[in-house]
Design brief:
By secondary structure, the chain is of the alpha+beta class. The protein has helices at 20-26, 40-52, 60-76, 89-102, 121-126, 157-164, 179-189, 196-209, 259-266, 335-352, 395-402, 408-411; strands at 4-9, 32-35, 79-82, 109-113, 147-152, 169-171, 236-240, 245-248, 276-277, 282-284, 289-292, 298-301, 304-306, 311-331, 359-365, 383-392, 416-417, 427-438, 445-448. 29% of the residues lie in helices and 24% in strands.
Length: 449
């Protein structure tokens, strides 16, 4: 065990840089590499993949990454913590073990079970769990038959248990995002669940780094002050046993770590700043000291925590109808007026065909798509991208929308172009249902090969 550990995060979401984790391993010393692949909608995709193919249901990109870096992980003794296991950590581990065997490497891989309650929903509701929508208060019965996935944000001590049993790679499903960093700290320093301030410190550290380069200069308000974004360094936590930590990045990498980049990430998905809720603790985001040490190093200390809640958050996804969207480029003089006319033509023709939608959208990209203000634009616009979209439970009606985009190229005003990719087709909408479940009903299990 050490007085200080270096925990890097090389993946903020499924689709983040495929080279960032490799660079973190190669560019300097780290003890742990955390990788976050799960957004709320991701688990529903994985669940549906598993229902079709029992060997699927995890992040394939993670397997490809381990294939690239496994020898270096072993030689440098870097431990990996990831939620890439999705809804099928067993199959993910099998894929990794095949890679290890082919390379002649023996490795211990721990999987964490217990977060996926998709098959247990009926049992829970029969025993009094109401699963009411945390935001709207809606009754779960309204979507019960349309559920795609249901996963509990379980605690981080299960990650520590897997590390205690010797796992070099820990595969989880829906642990919390900050928990990927908190788990190693619990393991290394022996922090207990009643040491609330220490657990709060580990949670805050994981919250700052959970989105990858978003705390090292990515997506930063003062973007023009960030040097060498093309080679942006991903974040590293230098975590101390007493709960103090430093956010930094590897020397020689691009990007920026200062008081502002870290503060912006702290504000991300914060909610009540005095009561940031995680499975392990509630963190008082108004309590700590944040000091810019210069040279891409920011220190945080005096973090205070509050007792954890008696419930876990549950992420449920469900089918909520169909959607489709399409776009055209309108060019030439009076482009905006022509774009407004094209939109009106398409909506009127669909109405004439009997297609009235539950919801629809009209956006003029570059004009009002982001800010909605169509009145503060230059008088002469020579180019507009028109984007239209619909939502409805009737799949045929949504597909009918897709057939009305291309005709205006020849039967509308002049200067309409940019139609590509074929007719927009109906896609299923996966909606998010946040809810709670009592902690005593959830049992987690750790299995290390």
């Amino acid at each position: 065990m050490s007085n200080v550990i270096r925990i890097a995060n090389g993946q903020g979401f499924w689709g983040d840089s495929i080279d960032a984790p490799v660079n973190l391993i190669n560019d300097g010393p780290i003890d742990y590499l955390t990788l976050d692949y799960l957004a709320e909608v991701t688990l529903s995709i994985m669940q549906r993949q598993k229902l079709k193919h029992p060997e699927a249901g995890y992040a394939r990109d993670f397997v490809d990454l381990i294939d690239r870096v496994l020898p270096d992980l072993v030689s440098k003794n870097v431990k990996v913590i990831s939620n890439a296991g999705g809804v099928n950590p067993e199959a993910c581990r099998d894929a990794l073990l095949k890679i290890a065997k082919a390379k002649g490497i023996n490795i211990k891989i721990g999987i964490i079970k217990g977060d996926n309650i998709y098959d247990e929903l009926d049992n829970f509701t029969a025993n009094g769990v109401d699963f009411k929508n945390l935001e709207s208060g809606e009754d779960f019965d309204s979507i019960k038959d349309e559920v795609y996935s249901a996963n509990v944000y379980i605690d981080s001590f299960c990650i520590a248990r897997a590390l205690d049993e010797g796992a070099q790679i820990v595969l989880a499903g829906r642990v919390s995002d900050p928990g990927l960093a908190l788990g190693p700290a619990i393991h290394e320093f022996g922090w207990k669940s009643n040491e609330i301030d220490l657990i709060a410190a580990g949670t805050l550290a994981g919250h700052i780094t959970e989105c990858g380069a978003q705390c090292t200069g990515g997506n930063y308000t003062r973007w023009n002050e960030v040097e060498d974004l093309a080679n942006i360094g991903y974040p590293i936590i230098e975590m101390y046993e007493n709960g103090e930590f430093i956010i930094t990045k590897h020397d020689g990498t691009g990007g920026l770590v200062n008081r502002q980049t870290v503060s912006e990430q702290i504000l991300y998905e914060m909610g009540d700043p005095s009561h940031y809720i995680s499975p392990d603790v509630c963190v008082d985001f108004t309590s700590f000291d944040l000091v810019d040490l210069g040279e891409n190093r920011v220190k945080l200390s005096n973090i205070k925590g509050l007792e954890a809640t008696p419930t876990y958050k549950v992420s449920i996804s469900y089918f909520a109808g169909y959607k489709a969207s399409g776009q055209l480029t309108i060019s030439g003089p009076d482009a905006l007026k022509k774009a407004e006319l094209v939109a009106a033509l398409i909506w009127k023709r669909l109405e004439n065909a009997g297609c009235i939608y539950e919801d629809k959208s009209t956006e003029f990209l570059g004009i009002s798509s982001c800010h909605g203000d169509i009145n503060s634009i230059p008088k002469q616009i020579n180019e507009v991208v028109l984007r239209l979209g619909v939502k409805d439970n009737d799949k045929d009606k949504v597909n009918r929308f897709g057939k009305e985009i291309a005709p205006v190229i020849t039967n509308g005003p002049p200067g309409v172009t940019g139609f590509a990719g074929g007719r927009p087709k109906a896609q299923e909408i996966v909606a998010y249902w946040p809810t709670l479940i009592p902690k005593n009903l959830i049992k987690t299990d750790v299995d290390v090969n």
